[in-house]
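Same chain as my last thread, 261 residues:
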Amino acid sequence: MKTLGLVGAGAMARALASGWGPSFVCMDAGSGRAVRLAEELGGRATTSPAELVKASDIVLLVHPPNALTEVAERFRSRAPRIVVSVLSRVSQADVGAAYPRSSVVRVEPSTLVSVRSGAILVVEPPDGATRTAFDEARKLFDRLGTVVVVDEARMVAASAISGVGPALWSLLIEAQVDAGIRHGLTAEQASELAVATMAGSAELLAAERYDTLLVRRAVMAPGGATARGLASLEASGARVAMAKAIDEIIGPQERPRRSKR
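reply #2:
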């Protein structure tokens, strides 16, 4: 099994280590979280960039994005062979400029990798020079979820659906659980029902090639309870609310501009 080198020890590093297993080496900026992460999940912590590079097959940047230049400077004397950047909204070119002697691949997973699930975005390599690194990174992440290759220009939009997805779906589950409690279910019962149904719905949608209309109509009798519930969601603006949430996550600077006529 390959050994991961995790530069950072926050939530995403924890998720990656949890999904990958104990074959990892991690370091932090002095917070002590790397030691705690290694002790908890069975990996190894180090304070030496050179040692991390030597012990790792592939190095993942999972530190705060604004620390890119500072962290890269610490690896100047011994550059990693492959650098996988998990830095949100930092371009592959910017990471490549910080690590000129490394092959760079840009990836955006979500915390679902901790249970080897969810979508993992991998940027299409800009040229043949990084194809080997891309193939190696893709093979690595295939083990942790569903790899989706995207053009870098669409990365922010894709991440607004996949990377932020666990938070959005958790909010919807909370709303269902609250409603269930209001009608007499225990919190545990309502949570189990909602989570199991969400997981099953995802599997069914995948099996039906993402045909949401087919799945909805399969459980919706004309004039029945499901039809009334869906009509209420539409009238309450559920679809618009989700669209606005995605717009806010993407931010105005990343939204497509309409041409003026």
